Amino acid sequence: MARSITARRKTINTAIAWSIGLLIFFPILWTILTSFKSEADAIAFPPKFLFFDWTLENYAVVQERSDYTRYLWNSIIIAGLSTLIGVIIAIPAAWSMAFVPSRHTKDILLWMLSTKMLPAVGVLYPMYLIFIKLGLLDTRTGLVMVLMLINLPIIVWMLYTYFKEIPGEILEAARMDGASLPKEIIYVLTPMAVPGIASTLLLNFILAWNEAFWTLNLTAAKAAPLTAFIASYSSPEGLFYAKLSAASTMAIAPILIMGWFSQKQLVRGLTFGAVK
Amino acid sequence: MGQIELKKVTKRFGETEVIPPLDLVIGEGEFVVFVGPSGCGKSTLLRLIAGLEDITSGTIEIDGQDATAVGPAKRGLAMVFQSYALYPHMTVRKNIAFPLKMAGMDAAAINAKVTAAASVLNLTDYLDRRPGQLSGGQRQRVAIGRAIVREPSAFLFDEPLSNLDAALRVNMRLEITELHQTLKTTMIYVTHDQVEAMTMADKIVVLRAGNIEQVGSPLELYRTPRNTFVAGFIGSPKMNLIDGAEAAKHGVATIGIRPEHVTVSKDGGDWQGRVTVAEHLGSDTFLHVASDLGQMTVRVGGEMNVRHGDTIWMTPDMTHLHRFGADGLRTP
């Protein structure tokens, strides 16, 4: 009796989980499906779900009209470098906060996080002017710097949480064994924090890849990443749904594949420290 | 090599004074045990010597050199932690080799030293395993191995046996004592277990609330405890402390008599009592007795046929009676 109730509850829970999962995934699925339709099928009413004439034409047109690889390369450079530099800066910062906290460490952490609450558009104008003055407009260097800075609080927070989980006695043992501070970080702390650092890299790479506000506003052509590539297919008339979908699919495909293969790491990264 | 001297050392955490001004000399080659109840400051004192905590005032000298401002890496001391603190991502070999690598020793010399340490500690078969694949006792040995390869001027042990089960604890206790006899290096050992202190130490430092209550050899502390705290802390089972009229007969505030210095009889004696619990160990019988003088513990050698509820008589051996004044201090 009890077992049948548990089994039924399990089935219901699974069904609910799948429904929610599909609901969340539906926009992406719809985008992918639309990318294989003709423009007429894309705006057909009632919408055509699976039974339409499948075509690769949109991909061919998109590839012909704009240089996908250039955008892709920009995305990889911008997301990759901003994440890497962020982590290099954040490791010593998180180390000091986790292992030699001062009275104000908690306040600093909260203040860092509070900068994420700021509406980005509020600083767009000054940022734009600074970028013009420094000649950083439409450069990868400029975007790497901006994305690194806006994601830095998250990187520090994630690493801080990981480092807090490492027993302080092990670092003290390293000190007793004659390790200087840099050696302690290189030989003991970092290898122990590798899983944490990996998921931090991964999550922030995704965040930087998906960042649209600054990448759209601070680039024009040269440094434009895939977000700009998608945006260039969105016209006010909305006539090119299928091509827009093809462009979107091409833009999200790399990150989607990467996320699929590293989902274990990602989930662990997001829930680390939450459960003992 | 290995003399450590603490001069007027104090430690404060914010407003709280954990170690009031303290002077202590640890001689070369001595096995010194810091013992006391939890929160007495014994681990803090060890960490001050290690350099893992900064002292608030005073000086620490190691081999005659002022080491107060010297970092833990440069003090030439090795430490074994309660949690072992092994590097989980390194094999046993790399764990033991780590301090040598940090010292910049060449690979061949490191290898020779690690091999030698492993054979002393019975770890040869485990050199390529990681700490996670070892038992508690083996992990403890790795921690000791990591400490001995450095040939430090002194070893610091912070409650190293408290995570082990009882049988293993006795074994490791012997191993550490033997290690001290072989190496003849200064060892400072922190424990809350007075049996460990009594069995291992050349010199015991009894601490309470950061203050040194008494320093002496195990037998000195056993025979002539300086005050009621040391009297109650050293010795197992605890010394019986009696005050009131019985103590007044001896002209003091408190008298103390150890369980093994009381003769027990079923027929007659000085103090009458009723047995509440009888613990039969074979070699000894411990009787917990409710008497007019309060709850007492007595030890009878061998077996004695006594049970819960029996009435017995106890006679103290006057030559082993301890007398303490109203301030708790020993009086002649």
Automatic annotation (TrEMBL), chain A:
Residues 72-262 form the ABC transmembrane type-1 domain. The chain crosses the membrane at residues 12-33, 71-96, 108-131, 143-163, 184-209, 240-261. GO terms for cellular component: plasma membrane. Keywords: Cell membrane, Membrane, Transmembrane, Transmembrane helix, Transport. Pfam families: BPD_transp_1. SUPFAM superfamilies: MetI-like. InterPro entries: BP-dep_ABC_trans_perm (IPR050901), MetI-like (IPR000515), MetI-like_sf (IPR035906). It is found in: Cell membrane. GO terms for biological process: transmembrane transport. Its main location: membrane. It is a multi-pass membrane protein. It comes from the Bacteria. Belongs to the binding-protein-dependent transport system permease family. This is Sorbitol ABC transporter membrane protein /mannitol ABC transporter membrane protein.
From TrEMBL, chain B:
PROSITE patterns: ABC_TRANSPORTER_1, ABC_TRANSPORTER_2. Signal peptide: none annotated. Residues 4-234 form the ABC transporter domain. InterPro entries: AAA+_ATPase (IPR003593), ABC_transporter-like_ATP-bd (IPR003439), ABC_transporter-like_CS (IPR017871), ABC_transpr_MalK-like (IPR015855), ABC_transpr_MalK/UgpC-like (IPR047641), Mo/tungstate-bd_C_term_dom (IPR008995), NA-bd_OB-fold (IPR012340), P-loop_NTPase (IPR027417). One of its GO terms (molecular function) is ABC-type maltose transporter activity. One of its GO terms (cellular component) is maltose transport complex. Belongs to the ABC transporter superfamily. This is Sorbitol ABC transporter ATP-binding protein /mannitol ABC transporter ATP-binding protein. It comes from Pseudorhodobacter antarcticus.
